[in-house]
Amino acid sequence: MTVGRLRRVEAAEAALRSIGITGDLRVRHFGERARVELSLSELAEWSTPDARARIVDAVVAAGYQEVEIDPRGFRSGALNRERTGPERAERADRPSSDDSFVQLGRT
Hints:
Order of helices and strands: HEEHHEHHE
Helix content: 40-55%
Number of helices: 5
Strand content: 15-25%
Low-confidence stretches: 83-100
Largest sheet: 4 strands, mixed
Structural class: alpha+beta
């Protein structure tokens, strides 16, 4: 992780906080794509199309092209778990059909 990538992640997390997201929050960096993890209560609160659009706008303003909202919510160490084991490492950068990710963005 470079300083520039960390700054972009920090900017995206700060932008999400500024629109009212509280509780556990993580932005995962995948190049031009950001994966947003929210606490389960926040995930429910921000599930409407208008609320999701606000999330996307905030993360895109921080420099990302695409935004995914992880329907599993915030999971500490999730990236490490995804990268362990050969079958899991293969899907680390792309969700499988059973993950039901919500992919949004401005491309």
